[in-house]
Amino acid sequence: MAPRPTVALLVTCVVDQIAPDTGVAAVRLLEAAGVDVAFPPAQTCCGQPALSAGEPEAAARLARHTLEVFDGYEAVVVPSGSCAAMVHHWYTRLLTGRDRDRAGTLAARTFELSRYLVDELGVTDVGARLDTTVTVHDACHGLRNHGVSRSPRALLEAAGATIVEMAEPETCCGFGGTFSQHHGALAGALADAKLGGAAATGAEWLVSGDAACLLHLEGRRRRTGAGPRPVHLADLLARGLPARTGAPGADGP
Amino acid sequence: MTGRVVTPGRTFKERAEHALANAGLQAAMRNLDRRLFTAADVERTTPWLKDRAASIRRETLSDLDGWLDRAAAALEAVGAVVHRAATPADAARYVVDLALREGVREVVKSKSMATEEIDLADALRAAGVASLETDLGEYVVEVAGERPSHMVTPAIHKTIPQVADLLTAEAGRALPPDAEVLTRWVRDHLRPRFLAAEMGVTGANFVAADTGTVVLVTNEGNGRLCTTLPRIQVVLAPVDKVVPRLADVSVLLPLLTRSATGQALTNYVTMITGPRRAGELDGPEQVHVVLLDHNRRRLLGTPYEEMLACIRCGACLNVCPVYRHTSGHAYDSVYTGPMGKILTPLLSGGEEGCDLPFASTLCGACTEACPVEIPLADLLVRLRSDLRGPGPLVRPGSARRPPPPSPSAPDRLGVPAGGPGSRPRRLPGEGYPWWAGGAALPSPRRDAPYGRRRLGFAAWAALWSTPAGYRLGAAASRAGARLLGRTRWTGRRVPGSGEWTVTRDLPLPAARPFRDRWAARESGVERW
Amino acid sequence: MSSPAGPVGRLRSALEANRCEVHLATPAELPENLAALAASAAAGTPVAAAPGSGADGGSGAEAAVGPSVRRAIEMLAGDGVEVVTPGEPAWAARLPSAGVGITGADAAAAAEGVMALRSGPTRPRATSLVPPVHLCVVPESVVEPDFEAALARALAGGPPSALTWIGGPSRTGDLEMRTTMGVHGPLRVVVMIAVDR
Q: Which residue of B has its CA nearest to A91?
């Protein structure tokens, strides 16, 4: 029997600190798909906040740390399109010399969660069963710098969910990192457009693969009441997995 | 900008907020067809266009000075007068002097962003020469005393009823909010002025270096009228309009028009090679071509050189979520949208629009839409690091100017000024790919390498590049969250959250981060 | 008549999509059909006719249609319609009142639906610009499959002082992105494609 593949989880600082249930869900999904998960505890942050603030040296420092931490794993899986895209698109542009070579190697082995399952592992049915209607938000960096588009939909369909596409799934939700702290009104307006588009589909859930986008959208939804509940792809699919014993210790949103 | 209505707000942020609150503007902007014809459609229908276009643009940029010389020689060979203008003021002065010398009383202008760049209409009026915009959308914004808000559809921010009110005042009689009637009125009102004007001013979509031909595209025919009836024609061509061969426009034009309006070609394409020839009954007697630099050639050899490939199609504006919600006037610059966010700080040498690169979610829709493959989102990120922050590098009115590129700085090829053996002082960040090439902007890193933003992020990165430092920081924010009670969401502003809570609830750190739960699972306390 | 799939057929479809009115005419039909179209478009106003002659730097394609157009002009004059041509002193004075301008074409691109007109002493630019109706006679021999080929043909012999490409009537989308016709150029463009048979 072929050995189970092992992946390292790059949990991301947002999931680690604010949405840990998503990390738990990601692990459960991977294990249900027949993958062993390692969690290198020395990981911190991919460095994206520094880069988008205009501080590439600080971002490079965190990039070098990330290279150290994930050196040697055959695959790195990330429950966030934008952090995976950071590794793919920016690490080789930020670093020089030997570090740049190592960055290229890491990029080739790093995958957003749904892309790992569907494109690397070839698995769309992880055993989850969903009897619900969903609409999908294609988070920007994952979509444009890492090709995350088909894979979330494939997983949802295999689980039996009905997907109703909104008018502009690929239009930015307005999070944009530091943008949403500095341009509160604009960020809110873009969130309203996204939530309005989602509401028009009549879906029960607004699904995406980026925790930060979802927190921004949920935060806006709590003010306006508009739109279906934003949920991470991993969280929704994990809900549909067969029940496990033991106390989950959740402190969900 | 003298004589123009200034959009309320001193920063992009303030103007954007005004725009969001303007219901009429929001209604008008919904008319902007986001996906007239995207780069993906070009890929699907005519995939060879993008590759050939990109290769023509790169060929030009690899020797822009050479192509400019050839273009100037070819223009002169067919009887055009060529003037190279280093600055907007220089270009405007040339045109004004020409008008005065030739006794021109009125100038008719065909739509040109370059004429906005040099404030030509204001310069002419200040010298007593009347100036009339002829493109319908440009005419409308001129009557309104505003700037164009979009480079292809300048009056997209106006509804038809608003245009009717504006032109009613101009007409002296009530004009109905009917597009056909308004169009007919503009045609009839402007026709006599075309016939009487002594000078026509246009921009150029392309200038061919082999034949000395200026290429102009319009749908309305105003470009043709401006270049057929007046006896003097002036073409204002920024240096990045040069193409090696006239035949190259058979690739670049369809790409431009498809990306701009979805048309295979615009209704009119006018190719002008010199003034009228012996025996011809119409066409200008004199053709003057002003080649405008305005800090463009300074971008060569820097990562920003790519911006000179821009063909002004407006596709990046049409897909930008920020532009669609705020419209062009929020940018308070000649060039708006994603390309404007990059070009404005660059052309102004870091003095204007320094908050613009930060007014983006970096979603990358612009990069995806660009038909000549400019990495717009990447250039925005790069600009954020080259600009110290959202404020201008030099405060207006301050005595301190940015220093000229330091004599000890490496030249464009990275060779230190004192020769390969000399060693200039090594500055923070040198050796990173960011430093490749010459200086497109006066560099804050050389001016003041240890600004507050840099120190703050350097400290953050130092802390967070160690697991212990990261856990310390995370524990501190959890402790802070506990002060707000055992809640996951708060509506209150907390340190570091900026304007988040103005429009949204803020998620707070979880009591137990993922890594603690993993550890608990490893030790058997928790099962998933 | 030419098949829809041939260059003439494709040019016709593209021009009609650009809102031109398109007619085909054989050499036998051309003079009479052209005269009838011009008279009806002019409706009592002068007809400005500047088809060009091969001698003045045009593409030489006028040799194919020149005689037919001149025959049409004779027919119009015979019916009492005022016709002005560039050689006459009255041209400059009467052009602004003309209801229709007749030109030839030096090249046409079938895929995009555009026609190219070279300027010259007998081919003033204003003929296709100032009158509200532009009547363009396109010889079949100048029709190329696409813009790239048409450009090469139009530039043969060197670029003229003005090479003008026309797709159809003047239009704008500046008002709430709704298309309206007849801004600064002609409101109607009528194309007569001169086919061999």
A: B433
